[in-house]
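Worked example 4.2. Below are the chains of a multi-component assembly; read each line carefully before continuing.
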Amino acid sequence: DSGVTQTPKHLITATGQRVTLRCSPRSGDLSVYWYQQSLDQGLQFLIQYYNGEERAKGNILERFSAQQFPDLHSELNLSSLELGDSALYFCASSASGRLHNEQFFGPGTRLTVL
Amino acid sequence: QKEVEQDPGPLSVPEGAIVSLNCTYSNSAFQYFMWYRQYSRKGPELLMYTYSSGNKEDGRFTAQVDKSSKYISLFIRDSQPSDSATYLCAMTRNKLIFGAGTRLAVHP
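Applying the procedure described above to all two chains together yields the following structure tokens:
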């Protein structure tokens, strides 16, 4: 158990809908990262927040947005969902804000868009 | 062409073998090079990272970076069935890019 929690574990929704994925980092970690993992695209870094501020941005679509709250939990919002958004979404956290340092991954949220 | 290329395998080896996993990349700006291990249905975990060129050893694992060839490797000595997993290379400067991952199976 990494200490990172993600909810929900599974999510099934329809095209065009909007969903929110939630992540609670390990106690004391200031950085939160979001990733998308699918069979065709592999693991893709979406975005990083550090102590409430956006720190780094990867291949995040404009339909997706994220934020980190004062209590350091983070939410990833996915809107206008398409079939291709079906994937496993991981959240990770770390103490530092450096991308190469050790990140602790949560169990993931499996999103299925029908 | 992808920025990071990694052969997806699968790679099947007998227990005790030396395993070599590799990635090539095209962006010479990358500075940090990482190797992650991902077991089935789990999130990735960082094995090790190196900065710039050179070797780094940690137990049975050795990471090598050759920036002149834009080529990185991970060697696993005395491989064990518990090493069976997907290994992802990753690299970063201001963004973080992962390879496709190589599935490794170590059979007794």
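Take a moment to check your reading of the output against the notes. Chain B has a mean pLDDT of 94. The interface with chain A takes residues 32, 34, 42-46, 49, 51, 88, 92, 94-101 of chain B (CB under 8 Å).
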